[in-house]
Specification:
Blueprint lengths: L52 E5 L20 E3 L34 H8 L3 E8 L2 E9 L5 E4 L1 H4 L4 E6 L6 E9 L4 E6 L22 E6 L9 E16 L7 E9 L15 E5 H12 L7 E3 L2 E3 L4 E5 H6 L6 E5 L8 H5 L6 E5 L2 E2 L3 H9 L6 E8 L2 E8 L1 E3 L2
Parallel strand pairs: 1-12
Antiparallel strand pairs: 2-4, 3-4, 3-6, 4-5, 5-8, 6-7, 7-8, 7-13, 9-10, 10-11, 11-12, 14-21, 15-16, 16-17, 17-18, 17-19, 19-20
């Protein structure tokens, strides 16, 4: 997540320590994505990977010595491919509506603010987010926006997860959390700690409309998913109002507009990979989404709680490809890996090499239409699923599990 405050005219540039641009201690590649995730291209273009999105330019307006300086952190998702137990569906209680967040005018700050002083001021409100995704785990970052455990993060940090745990900087132990709501189109998510908590430190948002190219940026994040004190890097805003396409390589792409570009280094685990160009969501955009979610506004782009989960890795198949597999179908979603034990698909007897052609009353003609059909149902709902394999056509009633949108 990237928080930044515009720098006052005439304020000297912050000078980072020499080792801020070095990888965090213990740096090592996180390994290939699990088999249910699409492989990323070897050299993706700079505007087509989630790894270069440093979540939000939330422009935290801190006080005292840190005010007016660039502040921020990278929200990330680093994948660890070791096996983990399948979680059960969460049944979260709704949060109580609260007063809307209002960004404030950035302060003038101090002329001798340092990246260390800024990090010390902001880091108590940064949290590490760890999720279960399929049979693997992932890690990212977020920031506390209420003393009772509301957290702002990226949708790509929590999407597809079946469980979430949160570690608060400077506090022992972890908390479980659930998704309150997301706006996939803006890559914004609000999650809530499940346990009863109070008095947690929070961030203050500044008005991002005054941000300018050349303003300093300090990023803090859960680099490599290692936890502990956030890793800190520094850079400058290099462009405003950018439009980028973010994807997992061969996965579904999202176009994000109004992005802020910076040269602050983002490590794998901050937002997926080292980069000399990062992108961030303006604080005014992020706060606007947060307030809509807090008000539980009903809109097509807003999703609340978990959605249905079948537990399959798929790709679109046409008649020619199906014929090569010996299947008599014209289109559908081909199961590319054996569903993990305990998933709804495995329990229904759906196997690798099958093509799903219908979910409930919806025809499935591609991987995208399968996702839309499944996610239109809630966890715990029982729906009919039709698939074709070499032994013929099969239909079963399947009780869906839950996954974060």
């Amino acid at each position: 997540m990237t928080d930044e405050n515009p720098q006052d005219p005439g304020q000297p540039q912050l000078t980072p320590p020499q080792d801020t641009l070095q990888p965090p201690s213990g740096y090592a590649p996180m390994g290939p994505p699990p088999n249910w995730m699409p492989q990323s291209p070897a050299q993706p273009p700079a505007t087509s990977v989630w790894s270069r999105i440093a979540a939000y330019v939330v422009l935290v307006a801190v006080v005292a010595a840190a005010a007016g300086a660039g502040i921020g952190w990278s929200l990330a998702r680093a994948i660890n491919t070791h096996q983990v137990a399948q979680s059960t569906t969460q049944t979260p209680s709704p949060i109580t509506p609260t007063t809307p967040i209002t960004p404030v005018t950035p302060g003038t700050g101090s002329s001798n603010a340092t990246s260390a002083a800024i990090a010390a001021k902001v880091s108590p409100a940064i949290v590490d987010i760890n999720t279960t995704i399929g049979t693997s785990q992932a890690a990212g970052s977020g920031m506390l926006i209420s003393p009772t455990g509301e957290i702002l993060t990226n949708n790509h940090v929590v999407t597809g997860s079946t469980s979430i745990t949160v570690a608060v900087e400077g506090q022992s132990g972890t908390y479980t959390a659930h998704v309150v709501g997301v706006d996939v189109s803006q890559d914004v998510a609000v999650i809530q700690i499940d346990q009863s908590v109070s008095g947690l430190p929070t961030v203050t948002f500044a008005d991002s409309s005054s941000l300018q190219v050349g303003d300093s940026v300090v990023t803090l994040g859960n680099a490599l998913g290692q936890g502990g004190a956030p890793h800190v890097t520094q850079g400058q805003v290099t462009a405003l109002n950018q439009t980028i396409t973010a994807s997992e390589g061969a996965g579904t792409a999202e176009t994000l507009r109004g992005m802020i570009e910076s040269d602050a280094v983002i490590y794998q685990g901050d937002s997926g990979g080292a980069s000399d160009i990062g992108y961030a969501i303006a604080s005014n955009t992020a706060v606007g989404v947060v307030n809509r979610i807090r008000a539980h506004e009903q809109a097509a782009e807003l999703t609340y709680g978990q959605v249905g989960y079948l537990g399959v890795a798929v790709q679109t198949v046409d008649a020619a490809a199906a014929s090569q597999l010996g299947l008599n179908v014209s289109s559908g979603a081909l199961i590319t890996a054996a569903p993990a034990s305990g998933t709804p698909a495995a329990s229904a007897g759906i196997t690798r090499g099958s093509v799903i052609t219908k979910v409930g009353g919806s025809a499935v003609t591609s991987s995208d239409t399968l996702g839309t059909a499944v996610k239109s149902h809630k966890p715990g709902e029982t729906v009919s699923v039709t698939w074709v394999n070499t032994s013929g056509t099969h239909t079963a009633n399947v009780t869906l599990a839950g996954v974060n949108p």
